[in-house]
Amino acid sequence: METLIIILTGVLVSVATYLILSKSVIRVILGTAILSHAAHLLIITMGGLKTGGVPILDNGHDTFTDALPQALILTSIVISFAVTAILLVLALRTYQELGTDNLEKLRGFYDE
Amino acid sequence: MNNIIAAPMIIPILIGILLIFFRRFTLLQRWVSFGGMAASAFISIYILNQIQSQGIMRLDFGGWEPPFGILFVADSFSMLLVTTTSIVTAVCLLYGFSSIGEKREKMFFYSFVNFLVAGVNGSFLTGDLFNLYVNFEIMLLASYVLIAIGGEKRQFRESIKYVAINVLSSFFFLIAIAYLYGTLGTLNMAHISVRVAEVGQTPILTVIGVVFLLVFSLKAGLLLYYWLPGSYSAPPSMIAALFGALLTKVGIYAMFRVFTLIFYHEPEVTHTLIGVMAALTLIGGSLGAIAFKDIRQIVSYNVVIAVGFILVGLAVATPSAIEGAIYYLIHDMVVKALLFILAGMMMAVTGTAQINRMSGLIRNYPAFGWMFFIAMLALAGVPPLSGFIGKMLVGQGAVEAGSYILVALAFISSIFVLYSLLRVFLNCFWGETIIEVEEKVPMKKGWLISCALLTLMIFGLGLGAEALAGYVSSAANTLLNPEIYIDAVLND
To answer: B59 partner at 20 to 30 Å CA-CA among A96, B130, B256, B428?
Structure first.
């Protein structure tokens, strides 16, 4: 199971890399969202997938699943949600102000 | 109880939230933020003195004993940086009052400055690696907003790139945390350090260390600084001053913490890599600083040079080099804020950022011109100003370690710093006066007061280095002897 998830993570990272390398801002944002999902999957796999019972005492289990990775990715999902939201707003405002969503045209240093 | 060590993070967060409800009352926003910063500066100084008498302090949130819970750890190194952050932000706010403009002030500007400082202070204080990530994100989210606030075209163009590069580095941060957790099964920094020491720093741990190095060098602008000049020159000068003074320093702090506390067993790999990256940063930053005519880019590349210089101290990691790096870190936070503010004032009074279109400013604004001159000397490391002792100790440490190439590059870069700023000084302050008396833009009082305060701090840090010596050597001692930190966190 772990191997499968790791392969899935790899697929997600490659998809995200492809999207991030494109010119359209929206594709880049989708790429960053997928990239963070890949990271979350990796964290939960690294902690070990289901290895025992629910991590509550007095439940008749001897081994427990590690609850920490779940707490970690919960935090990290919230953060990536916020970052994606702000990135989308920025992209919209950039499009309104500059009239383009092509990253090639956002190059350069001077306004003029 | 040690609850007080959370104050430097809690105060800005509470004030930031509070100010959201008082959007239209700019006067209230200004002075409440300033008061909050001043309060957290005093509290930090108090904690700093407490640490000297009773050792490293820690606060376990929710009563969860380490290594199980999240905790804040205050040692001299982190508290020195927290104190400097609060003071520098307070002075930057003074400058902001008269330069940021009503439009931005009503768009929650002060709230986001407070959130930024909360993230920065939290990153300095935390003793948990995942919590470090969370604090980084708090700081970055605030900085995403601050870089775009006001909505000029140039700001949007740079902010998209800035956010994209930082999202990417956050991804690498998560990956590194995942690998580390998979390998060692803990995220408490002291506990990680113990476990790394027990199993020895195996190649896989070294690789994880290098991934961390990649993350922090993206944030600090070590070698991977190509995003920095663009992003730091887009927002208004007060925000750029905060960024230049604080943001890269958090990356540097994290690098110091991780590579002195956790991954210090294989210096041939990690510290050599840091040394090579610092050397390339010094070269690239020096070339950038003299290549451009836009004042904003010149000062941004000066940030890059300082990052390279401070990490020379970490790369050689001898006691005097580490001490020197700490002195230089504090000096750099102050002087970079001053430099960005001065650059902003130059742009405000001349209406241009091109140095070849400014001339003879010193006749119109003598005090302003001489403060620029003093900032330049401090950056070049002329005694008795604040840059001197840091440069001397880093150089001495690097010579002791036999890293002659790094010594040479570090001091040649100082000459480039001097040259790049002297060029600005000669172009803009000397020469024929082009601003007529009638056209002269009056210098606002807040601008001069904030600059004068920072200039006084430069003198203070230089002449009062003796007073700081106790704190700095205690900080360096903790960095060089990880067992002090581990003892304070895990067994008391």
So the answer is: B256
Partner-chain residue, chosen from A36, A72, A91, that has the shortest CB–CB distance to B130: A72
* Residue A58 to residues A55, A63, B107, B139, B144, Cα–Cα distance (Å): 10, 12, 52, 41, 47
Tens digit of each residue's pLDDT (9 = 90 or more) over B103-122: 999 999 999 999 999 999 99
Is the CB of residue A46 less than 8 Å away from at least one CB of chain B? yes
Question: How deeply is B363 buried, as exposed, middle or buried, from its count of CB atoms within 10 A (0-12, 13-18, 19+)?
Answer: middle
Quote the pTM value.
0.95
Least confident of A46-60, B58-72, B213-227: A46-60
Q: How far apart are the first and last CA of chain A?
A: 55
CB contact under 8 A, A46 and B153: no
Three-state SS sequence of chain A: CHHHHHHHHHHHHHHHHHHHCCCEHHHHHHHHHHHHHHHHHHHHHHCCCCCCECCCCCCCCCCECCCHHHHHHHHHHHHHHHHHHHHHHHHHHHHHHHCCCEHHHHCCCCCC
Range A2-50+65-104 classified under CATH 1.10.287.3510:
yes
| Residue ranges making up the domain that contains B147 | 3-490
| Domain count of the fold of chain B | 1
Query: How far apart, in whole angstroms, are the C-alpha atoms of residue A111 and residue B357?
Result: 17
The predicted pLDDT at position B144 comes to 95
Q: Which residues contact B491 (CB under 8 A, 6 or more apart)?
A: none
Q: Where are the domains of chain A?
A: 2-50+65-104
Tens digits of per-residue pLDDT, B442-475? 888 889 999 999 999 999 999 988 899 999 999 9
For residue A28, give the chain B residue with the closest CA.
B164
Query: How distant is the Cα of A74 from the closest Cα of chain B, in angstroms?
Result: 12
Q: How distant is the Cα of A66 from the closest Cα of chain B, in angstroms?
A: 10
- Min Cα distance A76 → chain B (Å) is 8
**Integer angstrom CA distances of residue B389 from B333, B393, B409, B452, B453:** 15, 6, 18, 22, 21
A109 contacts B178? CB cut-off 8 A: no
DSSP E strands in B11-157: the ranges are: 57-60, 71-74
Which ipTM was obtained for this model? 0.94
Write down the pLDDT at residue A112: 42
C-alpha to C-alpha distance for B305 and B295, rounded to whole angstroms = 16
